[in-house]
Amino acid sequence: MPKQEFESLGSTLLVHVELTQIQSQEDLKELQLLTESALGDVVESVSCKRDAPDPSTFIGSGKVEEVASLVNALDVQTVIFNNSLTPAQERNLEKAFGVRVMDRVALILTIFAQRARTYEGKLQVELAQLQYEQARLVRGWTHLERQKGGFGLRGGPGETQIELDRRALRERIAAIKKSLEVVASRREQNRSLRKKNAIPVVSFVGYTNAGKSTLFNLLTNAKVYAANQLFATLDPTLRTIELPVVGKTVLADTVGFIRHLPHDLVAAFKGTLEETAQADLLMHIVDASDERKESNIDAVNAVLEQVGASEVKTLIVYNKADLVKDCARNIIRDESGKPTRVYVSAKTGWGIDNLLSAVSELLSDNLCEFTVKIGAENGRLRSLLYAAKSVDSESYDDEGFAVLNIRITAVEASIIDSKTNGELSLCCSSLEKPWKKSNEFDFDSVN
C-alpha cells in the first residue's frame, strides 16, 4: 500500500524522450513544473529521440550509461521520466542507476497525494495509487520465494508474499470504492436538492495553472488556495453568487486537467468529475498567454469526453488577458448570437463584467417570458414571483387585476406552479404554458 507520508524527491534528473508518435509526445517544461510542484529540485535534464521505446530500459543501453554517470556525478536522488514506464523498465532502470526512478504517472499521483485535503479527496488519490501499484508490487520484494505455509493451511507450498500483498491490495481497493459510493450518494442528494430549488450550476474546468482558482476567488470572495504551480488546488469547492436575471447560482471549482491525465486518476475522480457532466454550464478557463493553449483546450476536451461532459454548454474564458496584446474587449459570439468566448484577467479584474453578462445570458437560455393576471386572492403567487425576482414590471387593468410581466426559468416556474396548486397556470395569459416543455423534474414532492 502507498505511504501516506511522502519523502522529498530531493535532487532530481529529468529524462525526456521524444517519440515519433505525436500522441505520445510530452513537454519537458511541463515536466519541470510538475517536479517543482512535487517539491523536487531539478539539477539536470537529458533529452533524446527514439522511434520506439526500448523494451527493457525505454532509452537503450547507451543512454542508460550516460544517465547513470550523471546520477553519480551530480548526486541525484530521483530520476523522473517524462513518459510512462512498464514495471520491468522501472526495475531495470533503478538497478542501473541505484536511485529511485519515477515515470510521469507516478509523479502526478505524488502531487495529488500531497495536495488532497478532504476525506473524499484522500480516498480518491489512495484508490488511484493502489491501482497503479498493483502491477508494480514486485518492485518492493527481493525474495519473492517467501511463502506462508503451515498446519491448517491448504496443501502445497502456500501463498507467496506477493500473493498476500496483492490480496491485501484488492481488499483495500474494494473498501475504498465502497466508501466512495457513500460519498457519491450524499453528493447526489445535494445535487437533487439544487435541481429542485432551480439553482443553476456553473463548473470551472481547464488546464492546470490556467488561473481557475484565482478567478473563482475573485467572483465568490472565497479563499481557495491559488498559486503559480500545477495542481495548486485539488479538492472541489462550491460557492453561490447572485447573477443578473438568473439570481442565485452555484460556482464549482474543480481540479485542473493535464495532457495524458492518468486513467487511474480519471477513474478515481469520476464521482467528483461527474459534477461537470451535471452542470448547466462549463466555464472553460484557458491561459491566454500560453503558447500551447490550443492543444491544452484539446487535452481538457478529451477528459470532458471521458466523464460524459462533452455535450454540456461551454463558455471559453481566456484568462491572463493582461499578458496578451490586442485581445478582444467584447464578448465573442457565434453565428446565432450566443456567447462563445470572453477575455478576462483574474489578476486585475479586467473583463469580469463581460464574463458575468455572458454567463447570465447562457444560463437564461431557458427563460420563459409571459404575463400573469392575478387578483387579491392570489397573494401567495404574487409573493413567490417577487421572491424569485422574476417580475419585470407590474401594472393594473381596468378591473383592478394586477398584470405582471414575468421572466423566469422553466424549472422555477414549474416549482411555483406546484407550490400554488396550479395558480400560475390559471393566471397565465398564454394558452400554452411556456414552462411545461422544460419540466424535467418531479415537483410533486415540493411543499
Automatic annotation (TrEMBL):
Every Hflx-type G domain range: 200-367
GO molecular-function terms, A-Z: GTP binding; GTPase activity; metal ion binding; ribosome binding
Major site of localization recorded for this protein: cytoplasm
InterPro entries found in the cross-reference section: G_HFLX_dom (IPR030394), GTP-bd (IPR006073), GTP-bd_M (IPR032305), GTPase_HflX (IPR016496), GTPase_HflX_N (IPR025121), GTPase_HflX_N_sf (IPR042108), HflX_C (IPR045498), P-loop_NTPase (IPR027417)
Annotated function: GTPase that associates with the 50S ribosomal subunit and may have a role during protein synthesis or ribosome biogenesis.
UniProt similarity note: Belongs to the TRAFAC class OBG-HflX-like GTPase superfamily. HflX GTPase family.
Protein name as it appears in the record: GTPase HflX
The species this protein was found in: Succinivibrio dextrinosolvens DSM 3072
